[in-house]
Amino acid sequence: MHTRLHAKTYFLIAVMVVAGPVGNLLLAKGMKQVGEIKIWPPSELVPVFFRVFGSLTIWIGIACLIAFIVAYMLALSLADYSYVQPAAALGYAVVAILGAIFLREAVSLLRWVGIAFICAGVSFIRGTNPRTTEAPR
Amino acid sequence: MLEFVLFVLIIVVGTWGELCLGRAMKQTGELERFRPSAMVRLLYRALQIKWIWIGVAMMAVAFFSLLLLLSLEDVSFVVPVTALSYLVGAIGGIFFLGERVSGQRWIGIALVCVGVTLVVIGNR
């Protein structure tokens, strides 16, 4: 069973690793273009809402994250949650690289080391069995 | 303080929402083929399940928290810190979905936690 299960799961994870980070990058870019966000008093929320969701960058980011979530849900139907989530999380490192390049974020050495630890943790997690519960009927 | 609350909402509420999705998707059956029709049928079945909607609501809360946090902080800081959701996810996977988490996976999660700690220290 494992070869086919792995192939499908890996394909979906590949989609997640690309679409997730690009989506987050675009959200960050959009939110910084929108300007200062005030949430208090609550009446401020209405203009903020229209400013945020009037941004094309935000919408493209959301589209990427929807692609990510669809791939995620399909992957969850194949494999354990606690397998899919860490495997897909390589994207967490990709987003930092994209942020440094495209948003010119000043990433400190300690932050890079921390991200390296996260990647190491992720690669450790990847070798484990994708499903430990019974197949659904 | 606001940032701390936002991180908690993203990590805890967001992960719990994903766990609800995981629970629902286990009830839909597997994706048999990579045909669009099969995917649409699977998603349609999924939308009938209560847990999907609870999960979506929680993930929406997490999403708005993420947007707000991204307006305040670097994306290369925010996203790695949300990696703490592996820890929450593993604990939830055990207690909520009945999954088993191997020793090797725990080591990976521990490394992730060390990494998140370094990222947070590096931001101060």
What are the main properties of this structure?
heterodimer, A: 137 residues, mainly alpha, 6 helices, globular, B: 124 residues
Strand content of chain A: under 5%
Number of domains of chain B: 1
Treating each run of at least 4 consecutive H or I residues as one helix, how many helices of chain A? 6
Count up the helices of chain B: 6
Helix and strand sequence of chain B: HHHHHH
Name the poorly predicted regions of chain A.
none
Rg of chain A, alpha carbons: 18 Å
Quaternary state of this entry equals heterodimer
Q: What is the element string of chain A, with H for helices and E for strands? A: HHHHHH
Shape of chain A: globular
How many domains of chain A? The number is 1
Please give the largest β-sheet of chain B: none
Backbone shape of chain B = globular
Walk me through what this model shows.
The complex is a heterodimer of chains A (137) and B (124). Chain A has one domain (2-126). Chain A is built from six helices and no strands. Chain A is an all-alpha fold. Chain A has helices at 2-34, 45-53, 56-78, 81-88, 90-102, 109-126. Chain B is an all-alpha fold and 124 residues long. Chain B has one domain (2-122). Chain B has helices at 2-28, 36-47, 50-72, 75-81, 85-97, 103-122. Chain B is globular. Chain B starts with a helix and ends with a helix. Chains A and B meet through helix 1, helix 3, helix 4, helix 5 and helix 6 of A and helix 1, helix 2, helix 3, helix 4 and helix 5 of B.
What are the SSEs and their pairings?
The complex is a heterodimer of chains A (137) and B (124).
Chain A: H1 2-34, H2 45-53, H3 56-78, H4 81-88, H5 90-102, H6 109-126
Chain B: H1 2-28, H2 36-47, H3 50-72, H4 75-81, H5 85-97, H6 103-122
Helix pairs in contact in B: 1-2, 1-3, 1-5
